[in-house]
Amino acid sequence: MTERSNDMIEDAVEGALHDLAAEAPATLLPSTLLAVGLADGYAPLDSPIGRLFVAFNGRGVSAVALADDEAAFERRFVGTFGRPIRRVGTLPGQLGRAIERRLSGDRRAPVPVDLRNATPFERAVWDKALEIPPGEVRPYGWVAAEIGRPRAARAVGSVLGRNPVPLVIPCHRVVRSDGRIGDYALGSAWKRAALMDEGLDLERLEALAHVGIRFLGSDTTRVYCLPTCRNARRIRPAHEVRFRSRVDALSAGYRPCRHCRPGAAAG
Amino acid sequence: MDDDLALRLTSDLDGSFERLVVDHQDRLFSLALRYTGDPREAEEIAQDAFVRAYRALAGYDAERIAGLHLRAWLATITLNLCRNRARVRRSVAVRLDGDSAPVIASGADASPDGRFARREAIDHWAALLAGLPVRYRAPVVLRHVNGLDYDEMAEVLGRPTGTLKAQVHRGLALLRAAHEAALRHERAVEEQAPGDRASAGGELCIREVTR
User: Fold this and answer.
1) Contact A29 B25 (CB under 8 A)
2) Selection from A200, A240, A206 nearest residue A223 by Cα
3) Is A40 helix (H, G, I), strand (E, B) or coil?
């Protein structure tokens, strides 16, 4: 073969290789943006208390909300986060299963959440809410004191109110210190429903609050608790002692429960 | 163009990352596709490469981002992922009669016949390329599929440009030889049993006989 024809064949090989440049599949861009959290997917989720919309991206769950329909949810999402969102068939398997476990009361179910724009204060409030066991509630002031900002109860309330992932972060377990349920990101009817679904005796809590009772103690252990604490629920009626304030309990010789730490609650 | 993009990435990563993906996705996908020979794997690799790039950019300071050669940097990430996967899943036999999912190259001919012939040619050359030993495959793909220059390739592969030129030259020679061998094989089969083309092709592996 002459050198010249060799070159021509080489050119032909180069041309054939040049044609091997391919177009990326149309799915690559959206799935990449989803993976890095510059776009979100969402799907409806049937929770124990009703149908929700759940948005997510590669960083975790980004929004949980109620909406009349998909269009309304999308509008609200784009308005709040400024990112594109699209409907997916179902939530990714592992994430969907973890959310379901979390919503049915398993606090340790590993649900990653996308709280990228949260301030340290917001993060502290939401992390603290996650420590409250299902079926129990804590006052706003308790959260404020626990995170080292005892005077910030009101700010705690508003941070909980703008929790982007209600139920996944159980802000419904934080209530007013006078025992009333208070506001909620999904509306107070949902807050009641979520708490009752967890087995909380809401009527009893409200009845106690109505007569000014904030703490319950046991005259056998001489320990006092917040009324919904799992230890308070074990006190038999014959041994139950009621307190209007922390000072009353302390001066009666009772010490605070180590589980619910009622000392952090105002009153 | 890339310099401009690198500059925008320093000031607004989230606002300009989509541009980065749009500008580089065909090149990254092609690199992974022609290296692995598997479109599904190539898409996963390309996505993974972009995710790693995003996380790296989020951690780099402005000076480091501005100094990046994006094409070479992204190719480096992609190629590392290709190699890691190959290590996990030892390379599958290359089949010239390839069952692989259709991949349409950009600018395919308009006529159905032309498109079919082009598809066939692409599958043929893709199979030959996937059978090339990796030390030639990577430089050949970077140079002739991705269109990188030798300085960029030296950055990606960590080899001197002189070595890379020799490896690309050798790679092309091996491809040409394999192509000619395949043509001879096909002709021989056609002469033996006209009409029975199913047995043509078979498996073909490019080996270096001499060094």
Assistant:
1) yes
2) A240
3) strand
Q: Which amino acid is at B152?
A: E
Shortest Cα distance, chain B CAs vs residue A8, angstroms = 11
Q: What residues 53-112 of chain A have any CB closer than 8 A to a CB of chain B?
A: 58
Q: Which domain holds residue B35?
A: 1-92
B46 in the same domain as B32 = yes
> Which spans in A82-163 are helix H?
93-103, 120-129, 140-146, 153-161
Of A20, A28, A36, the CB nearest to B129: A20
Domain match, B69 and B101 both: no
Same domain? For B60 and B104 the reply is no
Residue B204 sits at the chain A interface (C-beta within 8 Å)? no
Structure-derived torsion over alpha carbons of residues B153, B157, B163, B166, reported in degrees to the nearest 10: -60
Query: Does A36 contact B30 at a Cβ distance shorter than 8 Å?
Result: no
Residues A138 and A185 in one domain: yes
State the residue range of the domain holding A47.
28-103
Q: B83 and B3 share a domain?
A: yes
Domain count, chain A: 3
Q: Is A82 left (phi over 0), alpha (psi -120 to 50) or beta?
A: left
Domain boundary (A46, A68, A103) is at: A103
Give the nearest partner residue to A33 out of B18, B104, B141, using CB atoms.
Answer: B18
CB contacts < 8 A, A to B, total 98
Tell me if B176 and A14 make a contact (CB, 8 A cut-off).
no
Q: Return per-residue pLDDT of chain A as tens, 267 residues.
A: 455 555 666 678 899 999 999 999 999 999 999 999 999 999 999 887 778 999 999 999 999 998 888 999 999 999 999 899 999 988 988 999 999 889 888 888 899 999 998 999 999 999 999 999 999 999 999 999 999 999 999 999 999 989 999 999 999 999 987 777 777 777 888 888 889 989 999 889 889 988 999 999 999 999 999 999 999 999 999 999 999 999 999 999 999 999 999 987 655
Give the residue from A177, A205, A233 where a domain finishes: A205
Q: Which pair of structure tokens corresponds to residue B206?
A: 């490019």
Interface predicted TM-score (ipTM) of this complex, two decimals: 0.78
Interchain CB contact of B29 with A (< 8 Å): yes
CATH number assigned to the domain comprising residue A149? 1.10.10.10
Total structural domains in chain B?
2
CA atoms in the 13 A half-sphere facing the CB of A37 = 19
